[in-house]
Amino acid sequence: MTMMIVRYGALLAVFLIAVETATRSYISQPNDIELYLGGVAAIFLVLGIFVAQKVKKPAAADGNTPDQLSVLDRADFSDRELDVLLFLCHGYPNNEIADQLGISGNTVKTHLKNIYGKLGVSNRTQAAAEAKLLKIVG
Amino acid sequence: MTMMIVRYGALLAVFLIAVETATRSYISQPNDIELYLGGVAAIFLVLGIFVAQKVKKPAAADGNTPDQLSVLDRADFSDRELDVLLFLCHGYPNNEIADQLGISGNTVKTHLKNIYGKLGVSNRTQAAAEAKLLKIVG
DNA sequence: TTGATTTTCACCCAAACGGGTGAAGACAAT
DNA sequence: ATTGTCTTCACCCGTTTGGGTGAAAATCAA
Question: DSSP states of chain A as a string?
Answer without folding.
Answer: -HHHHHHHHHHHHHHHHHHHHHHHHHTT--TTHHHHHHHHHHHHHHHHHHHHHHT---TT-TTS---SS----GGGS-HHHHHHHHHHHTT--HHHHHHHHTS-HHHHHHHHHHHHHHHT-SSHHHHHHHHHHTTS--
